[in-house]
Amino acid sequence: MLPIALDPSDLRPLYLQIMDELRRCLATGALQAGDPVPSVRELAAHLVVNPRTVLQAYQELERAGVLYVKRGQGTFIAPSALVDRQILAQDVAQRAVLDARRHGLTTAELVRAIQRTTADEDDEPLVSALGKRQGVRK
Amino acid sequence: MSGADAVRTEALSKRYRRDTALRAVSLRVPETAIYVLAGANGAGKSTVMKVLMNLERADEGTAEVLGMDSVRCGPQARAQMGYVPEDARHPYGWMSSSQLLAHIAAYHRSWDVSYADRLRRTFELRLDRKVGTLSKGEARRLQLILALAHRPAVLLLDEPTDGLDPVVRSRTLAVLAEHLADGPTSVLVATHQIHEFETLADYVGILRDGSLIAQLSRDELPNVVGRYRVEVPEGWTATRELRSAGVRGNPVREAEWTLVGHRGDLIDRLTVTGALVHSVRPVSFDDAVVALIAHQVTP
């Protein structure tokens, strides 16, 4: 099973969280173009979520061109599925900003803290050290 | 969602001698919904299920399952229902588990033998023992098999994970998610373990002292329960209304509460008292249900 998990402290709708997790798998290389994704039944049982919620996430991703359904064979990552790193980054940023607000921080304070934290890093994806598959590019 | 209801009660009332168990309960479980029925002990959750199963008669009102009256069409309705009762003991304690399974299977044309066997293996249940000698957890697992194996259109689950160890608990919930994916099933589940159904539920109803005080879809929940961060002027005290919505204590400057009530109304009520609402955040399903049980939805 894919490294997909839900964060109980994430209060966004579940189908959005599942969409994010699949996009994350694409970004880390755990999923690549042409790969099958788990059936609705499998993923529902794995995450213990309402199968309808998984179906909703899959339908949204199909609409977005990330997934396609081969009738009778299952659901697959579309060949043209590009890892939209911008969307992914946007989501991560949104969560960070929400968390900062909850702690009474301003956006400027958060941005400065990120810059300080990453001052000595080059711009390499954090996952590259973990990515065993070649799909992870610099 | 289709317009039909899988379960529908109309002004159901029930008294046990002088105790009122249900007061005019009108509950609706839409088809294929997973409806969590929550409430304190004795709030009437099990009574609703028993009336639906026609194990108890209501004094007033009607109960329907898939459009069939639970009294007049009892057997036809029950053929389409899987029921896990609150009481783990089965009346046929003298039978072995395998005899009981065969006995119940004979009543259901839709009994799925291979599925029953798969469930038995998933639940690691031995079938040679007498039903009456099973532990609470074993009896629960047997009941789950009995309820699921004929693939009923409607499941009534009364504390389905009660008495199960943590491993079997999570396995049971996964089995349930899989079961729902296999065919259209409507579920009414009464439970204190709200968090277990957090990711499965799409409707919630709250019973308090026999009255259904709230009934909402999951999407409506954030409009009715929220976490309010509020700044208050010096010497501020809450109105009675605000207290019944969940405001606690006599805060100095700032406070945070989980409040029950429509967002706009609550903000108005707070603003009128001189308080300033900084933010309203969503709360988890679990926290929302606990708040609904404890507080009033202000009309």
Largest sheet of chain A: 2 strands, antiparallel
Give the N-to-C terminal Cα separation of chain A: 26 Å
CATH superfamily of the largest domain in chain B: P-loop containing nucleotide triphosphate hydrolases
Can you count the helices of chain A?
A: 5
The arrangement of helices and strands of chain B along the chain is EEEEHEEHEHHHEHEEEHEHEHEH
Report on the structure:
By secondary structure, chain A is mostly helical. Chain A has five helices and two strands. Chain A has a two-stranded antiparallel ribbon with strand order 1-2. The model of chain A is unreliable at 128-138 (pLDDT under 50). Chain B has two domains: 5-217, Rossmann fold, CATH 3.40.50.300; 221-294, Alpha-Beta Plaits (2-Layer Sandwich). In chain B, the strands form three sheets. In chain B, strands 7-8-9-4-10-11 form a six-stranded mixed β-sheet, sandwiched between helices. In chain B, strands 1, 2, 3, 5 and 6 form a five-stranded antiparallel β-sheet that branches. The longest helix of chain B is centred in the middle third of the chain and has 17 residues, at 166-182.
Key words describing this protein structure:
heterodimer; A: 138 residues; mainly alpha; two-stranded antiparallel sheet; globular; disordered C terminus; B: 299 residues; alpha/beta; Rossmann fold; Alpha-Beta Plaits; 2 domains; six-stranded mixed beta sheet; five-stranded antiparallel beta sheet; 10 helices
Summarize the structure.
The complex is a heterodimer of chains A (138) and B (299). Chain A has 138 residues and is mainly alpha-helical.
How would you summarize the topology of this molecule?
The complex is a heterodimer of chains A (138) and B (299).
Chain A lengths: L13 H15 L11 H8 L3 H13 L3 E4 L3 E4 L7 H18 L4 H11 L21
Antiparallel strand pairs in A: 1-2
Helix pairs in contact in A: 1-3, 2-3
Chain B lengths: L4 E12 L2 E7 L2 E3 L3 E6 L5 H8 L7 E6 L2 E2 L4 H6 L1 E4 L12 H9 L7 H10 L13 H13 L5 E5 L7 H17 L3 E5 L12 E6 L2 E7 L3 H4 E7 L8 H6 L8 E7 L2 H10 L3 E6 L3 H10 L5
